[in-house]
Amino acid sequence: MDTQQLNGFKTMNLYRNPFASPTEEAIGTDFIGRKSVLKKMHEYIINADKISNYHIVGLPRIGKSSLLKAFKTMIQENHYSHDLVVLYISLDECDNSNDMWRIIGKGIRKELKKQFHSSDKYTNFIDELDFEDVDENNIDYEYVCSVARCMKASGFLGLILIDEFDNFSTIATKGTVGQVRTLFSGSEYGLRAVVASRRMVERIEKEVEGALNSNVSILASTFVNGYKLKAFNEDDMKDYWVSIEEKIGVAVSNRYKEEIDYYVGTHPCLLNLLNGNFWAEKETKNYICDDDSNLKLSEELINKLHDSFNWAVWRDMEKWQLLRSLILSTWGPDDEIPNSELSELERYGIIDKSQFLSESSGPIRIAISRYFTEWMNLKRYVLPFGDEWSKAEGNMRKIVKCFCDDMYQGYESKMISHLETKNANTFEKNVDPRFTAKGRFDAMKNKMSKAINKYPDMSSSIIDYSDPSDLPEIFFKREWSWFQQIFSKTWDEWREKFATMNEIRNIKLHNNQGVPQVRIELAKKYCHEVNERIESFLSIRGIII
Q1: Which pTM value belongs to this model?
Q2: pLDDT at position 15, please?
Q3: Taking a C-beta distance cutoff of 8 angstroms, is the pair 333, 364 a contact?
Q4: 173 DSSP β-pair partners
Q5: Nearest to 167 by CA among 205, 140, 139
Q6: Among positive and negative, which fits the CA dihedral 266, 27, 164, 88?
Q7: Rg of the chain on CA atoms, in Å
Q8: Alpha-carbon dihedral of residues 533, 535, 537, 540, nearest 10 degrees?
Q9: CA distances from 537 to 111, 196, 474 (A)
Q10: Quick one: pLDDT at residue 362?
Q11: Domains and CATH numbers, the chain
């Protein structure tokens, strides 16, 4: 980097952060990329002889609001010869459907007057409608329809951009659903709409109070065409980095771009969150153009990143009951995932079904970013998400913690110290050190240390970092006198069951092939039996399952 560039950095420190705020809509020069999306929207929605309805669907903070506002600017500059008004509204500002119609009606009146007040067409329009003498506080659906009908007859068109359409389910009634279809589909009306939401309109419609038939969607045909907004594509990313380079006056290093990609992939909001916060933390900005520097995130920034994973992806996946399938879609097994849910994850752009990375332990898919995928894989062992495999592992950890509470007053360090030496001079004497109690605990400690250093919000219980074979070998086998109250019978009768679970779980975890189906079904059966016995025991002890 030359002297001029260094001086440029000193100057840049005096100006605003070059990265857009992750919590605000990107407008003006902060709106980057999405050229191909805007082009598709324009080609479909604005035609020489008509305008059409459209639907944008995408995850939270993926850029739907910013896209709608950029599209508004675009069509105001390029709408053929239409006498067109464009109105942006957000349903998070509405308490009920009356609010929605009032905002639409007032907005249309304002835009028509602002754009066309000096034209003869507008004069004839307001004379026919008695436009000026209306109390705007009394605007309702019927009034909006009369305006839309008169607009069409007079040669005016209106496009309503409706953001946060998920809220429609809470403000609408079954009558509102029909009103929306009539107004935005009827040939006699001059209004059409572009709606943006996290879910498809038919899912939103199902939640409307008093919906007539949950299996038949009224709105699906109205908004049948649309775009599934995902993370940035390759062209968007080129635009993103070019815009940053123009703001800071130097080229961003490839090394820095790779590090950012590892943490957040191409998710626009997460890109700005990580880049913007890192920029704010660093007094000097040389890191951004240094090909040899490594990105070292502060604990505060890591926690912010994990919070963003929760609100950008994890929260809605859990709410929509897709979390289990999301976790399985990355680390496997695929055959545990319903095809419809796998397709839905791909529709949201979280995964690409056809893309795998080769790992020594088996192929994996990337969801959002490599870092997010690793974070999620650790989460699966701490947070139960429903499948028999991980549920059994989680339950076994719970009873080991009960054992620790009963025998060592809850002190893991005391338990570990005792178990590491208890059999060291007897049957562990000639065992491979990796498979002694001490060796297994050391491996767990190492995993825990790495996990907490990288992900500070991870569990501080060493038991949560055990492998499937650790617990039966260290605890059940050697302390059977305590664990027999849960499993009954003898250790020898359970030994093969735990061995089968361990063998099949490890293989299935990574989508490996060649395991006989009968072995898989047997392992599932054993997992189910383990879960039933442990959950019965935990229930008696009053422990939440």
Answers
A1: 0.75
A2: 58
A3: no
A4: 209
A5: 205
A6: negative
A7: 30
A8: -140
A9: 67, 48, 20
A10: 64
A11: 34-228 (3.40.50.300), 321-386 (no CATH), 390-540 (no CATH)
